Amino acid sequence: MVRDEKSLDAFRQVLKEDLQDPLYLTPEEVVGGWCDMFPALATSLPAPFPIFARDEEHVVTWGYPLLLSEGVRKLRSALDNLVRSETQLRLQSSSGHPDLKRNALSHREKYHNSIATTLENVFMNDYHRGLVDLFLLFHSGEVIRSLSLASKIEDPQHPSAGASAERREQVASVVADLLRRAALTAVDQLRQLAQVQITPALTPLLGIICQDQLLLVESRPPKNLTQLGGYLQARFRQNAEALHAANLRVLERLNDLVVRRPEVGSLLRIAGGSNLKLDRPEALLQPRLLDAIRSAGLAETLHLSAVQLDLLRELGLRLKTFELLSTLRRRILPMERQGTTLVLAGPSSATPIAKTTRPYDFTAPGVVDSAVRRFGLIYDLSNFTTVLEEMRKEGRMAEERALQFMYVFQNRLEAIRLRRRLTFEKFLGDGAFYTSRRALRVIAAACEIQNVYEQLRTIGFPFNHGIRIALNFGVYRLLPMLHPGLEAKRFEFFGHGIVELARLTTGKSTREVSDIAEFLVHSGYDPAEVDGFLAPLTAVRSSRHQKSLRRYAATLDAHGELINEGIVVALPFLEELELEFDIGDLTVAEIDNAEYLLFPIDPGLADTLYVGLRYLGVARLKGLPPQELAEAAVWTEMPSDTRSIPFRPPLIDCLRRLVVAHEDDDPVGHTRAQEIGESLIVITYVLEDGTRKWIFGEYRDADDVILHSLQVPIQTPEFSPGEPMEMWLFRNRFDLAQVYEGLRRESPGILVPLSTLRGRPGYLACFLVAPHRAIG
User: Fold this and answer.
1) Buried b (16+ CB within 10 A) or exposed e, 704-730
2) 351 with 54: CB under 8 angstroms?
3) CB–CB of 303/293 below 8 Å?
4) Three-class SS of residue 186?
């Protein structure tokens, strides 16, 4: 709704495109003056927004996406039946056939019930988002479409343009009355729902449509008054030809007066606007001009009575309102689903639309799907509270210095957000949450945030314990946050996507061990006893094959728990990232005893940063199923020792292959196979809903049973064409073994005869240490 400059810019974008030569609105009103003229509409109409192409980058148009769902089509059918029956009733009114009237009454009831149910759904889910206004704009267009179809059944023996226009007005009047009654029914129904404490307000647009009805019979503003014969007669009891002729006479007198007294012309132009033109009768519909004529005492000279002035002023305001609303109505963009693709529905071609688009469906629960698919980024400053406490102890000067540094940090992050076109969603204590439609923007922002943090840390940034960043692509839910008046001030993200990002960001840290040790020593415990007590945890956190020499790094410990001190990337993010850039050969560099795939953020720029991707493995995250993760590292320049390899999609497989190849060349890698028990078995099969179930346990050949069997909630990856599942198990055997061992510490498992699982759809059983060794 029009409450900020961003919303006003969106309206300007649409109105300036469609009203380059407006008929009734002035240029000043087109670019924003209409808000002052119609304040009620300005606070209720939702702003149009960009509709992105399939690449999520280019804007196809601006407007309001509408899904042509089955429910919308049923509502359309109810309207068409109503309009058809009302038209037939009036065409054959002389026959007095009772069946026609019964048929019309029946369709009135069906239409009323259908529209009331829809409005109840829209009211309930509005939360001051302007959904009611959008529905009314859409439905008014549907009425015009339906009236056009009904005109084809006009009586060929009595063709009359006047009679046809009169019938359209009469049918539109019936629709308007039913629409008003349905709105009241919906409101009453909601008020009676004890579990829903809501009192929906009737939007001003409903009154405009039901009382004026111009939006129900005309698709565009008429170029002259003679085209509004039926409307002027029905609403103002005025003959269009007579009013047009009267305006011509007044205009002649006014132009003659301006020639004789130029100062009058200057005065009228100041009052009526610099673009005021007195060359067409419709100029007399400008309220500001009429007010100036009245104020200057020129009405009597021009033979304009007070009644005529009021009539012209009211008519002018209505036509301005109609021009504004009809323009916005044309930006309601019908869409259809073709398989999994969302397309703009059109008579000629279907334009694919971004899959993240959430079209309106006024007949569906919620109207707008609360689930959004977005790329998310969360950063978190490590030990933020500890640093704040240290600053407090040091005194006011230290606190002020920390505040100034934080101000600089936030300004640098805002510059990154603007450059990478991210959306700031909210602060999360000592971090923040951003979203975007593009993976490249998000990973570029993450790299720049880490780089900026390092720059500030080197010059004294007090929050210098590190920064953790997590990136994902997933489903988020939008929850309206209500104040006591039940107005949605904002919509908060919640659901699996935000939980996953939080878990990825707040992974374990090697610094946690030292922090615990410091706390215990300060509490009076003997340092030697503390070191001995924490030795097992220290060994796990700093195991030889996981230890990193870089300041910002992400690793997995021996139990599959994430240690995030850098940038962590979820698997779905990598899958989407691959679709956004054209990959030829891949650059590989060995850094810190690990191999990374490298690419520049901004190819061609001298100050570009280089992103390195490395496969981490399968992590155990609190409350979430095990999932594959990668690390993103940042370099200011390309390492000198690199090599190129051909790219064979998918990207995640390239990262997995690098890990396997590196371990095969690494003596330590060979010893890791000894960590996997030779009897550890993996069984998998497909459930009725198509999902794959995974069971791990220890196989005892003597009686063909699985000991300590546990169900492991693995997110099964998408395999490449022709890729056997055994290959994926082999690449991830160490991580999967760690996941199983972690689950075993929480549950002893159960004994299961393997014979009870054989024969299941998609059945496979093999030893994890060597997945090619299948068990029949």
Assistant:
1) ebbebbbebebeebeeeeeeebbbbbb
2) no
3) no
4) helix
Write the DSSP symbol of residue 31: I
Question: Which helix or strand (DSSP H or E) is residue 317 part of?
Answer: helix 306-329
Bridge partners for 561 per DSSP: 620
Of 259, 238, 282, 1, the closest CA to residue 130 belongs to 1
Of the candidates 392, 359, 379, the residue with the CA atom closest to the CA atom of residue 434: 379
Phi, psi of 495 (to 5 degrees): 110, -170
Report the alpha-carbon distance of residue 775 to residue 736 in Å, rounded.
Answer: 19
For residue 517, what is the enclosing H or E element? Answer: helix 510-522
Q: Pairing state of beta strands 764-767 and 680-686?
A: antiparallel
Q: What is the pLDDT of residue 419?
A: 94
Q: What is the pTM of this model?
A: 0.75
- Radius of gyration for the chain, computed over Cα atoms and rounded to the nearest angstrom: 35
Tell me the C-alpha distance between 255 and 283, whole Å: 12
Please report the pLDDT score of residue 670 as a whole number: 44
Residue 294: strand pairing partners: none
The residues near 286 (Cβ < 8 Å, ≥ 6 apart) are 26, 272, 273, 276, 316
Better pLDDT: 133 or 666: 133
**Residue 198: how many CB atoms within 10 A of its CB?**
14
The long-range contacts involving 408-416, CB below 8 angstroms and separated by at least 24 positions, are: 408/456, 409/452, 409/453, 409/456, 409/461, 409/463, 412/452, 412/456, 413/449, 413/452, 416/445, 416/448, 416/449, 416/452
pLDDT band, residue 95 (cuts 50/70/90): low
- Nearest partner of 450 among 632, 315, 679, judged by Cα: 632
Q: What angle (nearest 5°) sits at the alpha carbon of residue 738, between those of residues 737 and 740?
A: 65
Cα distances from 181 to residues 116, 264, 638, in angstroms, run: 8, 49, 70
Cβ contacts of 539-545, under 8 Å, gap ≥ 24:
541/508, 541/510, 541/512, 541/513, 542/510, 544/668, 545/668, 545/669, 545/672
List Cβ neighbours of 558 (8 Å cut-off, separation of 6 or more). Answer: 540, 543, 546, 738
Helices (H), 692-759: 725-731, 733-746
Our measurement of the distance from residue 405's CA atom to the centroid of its chain's CA atoms, rounded to an integer in Å, reads 33
- Residue entry with tokens 């059945």: 763
Instruction: Express each pLDDT in 456-493 by its tens digit.
Output: 999 999 999 899 999 999 888 877 766 544 444 567 77
- Give the torsion through C-alpha atoms of 733, 735, 736, 740, to 10 deg: 130
pLDDT, tens only, 665-708? 554 444 444 468 888 999 999 988 888 899 999 999 888 999 99
**What does the angle CA 493 – CA 494 – CA 495 come to, to the nearest 5 degrees?**
140
663-701 as b/e, with b when 16 or more CB fall inside 10 Å?
A: beeeeebeeeeeebeeebbbbbbeeeeeeebbbbbbbee
Two tokens, residue 210:
């039901």
What integer is the mean pLDDT of 118-138? 91
Nearest 10 degrees: Cα torsion 174, 180, 183, 189: -90
Cα separation, 118 vs 124, in Å, equals 10
What length is written for the chain?
776
* 633's tokens: 């590292």
Cβ–Cβ < 8 Å for 632, 574: no
